Amino acid sequence: MGKKLYIVWGSPPVNAVIMTAKALNVELELHEVDFANKEYLSHWYLKINPSHTVPALDDDGFILWDSHAILVYLAETYGKGSTLFSTEPKERYKILQMLNFDCGIVTKKMANCIWPLFYEDQTSIDPKQLEYLKDVHVVLERILKTTKYVAGERFTIADISIFSSLTIADMILPIQEDECPNLKKWFLDYKNSDLYKAGEKSIETTRLGLKFKLGNVIE
Ligand SMILES: N[C@@H](CCC(=O)N[C@@H](CS)C(=O)NCC(=O)O)C(=O)O
């Protein structure tokens, strides 16, 4: 049996897993969950993920949900020789720190801006929420002023996870080069990479969704 990943197109956490699998050369069988018909709340899916979110991974019967846990699992299980995670304890804690920053802060602030558009039929983004999201740029700029990547001097799954979130955040709050030059460079380097291409279908899905909701404010 292969590795099945439950997904919805356009989801940043799903995309982080797709991009990480690409980086590790891991083949995933993608299984789309029908969000329009609330399949994520169905009996069969709740058995896979009681927390009713995507992504969820089924690796030959071993089930794991939450993208950040899945990234660590894939890197540790299938990333022998890869430097995307680390065996050195202090490096691992730094990577986990930044995965938690993505999970608890970046994605939460981003969701507070975007979810009301899709789930509460709002037609614009609350400027206060955009202001809170802006702090993510400020924090990352502070970090990237001192290290090349978000968790140190090596590119890791923490970069992929945060990048995946920022590809979507950037559509509603572009990174300003004059205010955050280091973050902008980190972001653009990644945007020109093959990993970005691996995630393009999902990114484009969100872009079209946002454009539908917000019109020409979105490029
Ligand atoms: N921390 C989770 C967040 C996953 C998440 O919120 N996924 C959204 C799609 S982007 C979802 O499945 N939402 C459905 C729900 O919350 O019921 C992760 O990283 O996997």
From TrEMBL:
Domain GST C-terminal: 88-212
TM stretches of this protein: none
A Pfam family: GST_N
Domain GST N-terminal span(s) in chain numbering: 1-82
Any single biological process term in GO: glutathione metabolic process
GO molecular function annotations of the record: glutathione transferase activity
Domain of life from the UniProt record: Eukaryota
Record-stated family: Belongs to the GST superfamily.
Subunit structure: Homodimer.
Protein name: Glutathione S-transferase
Organism: Ceutorhynchus assimilis (cabbage seed weevil)
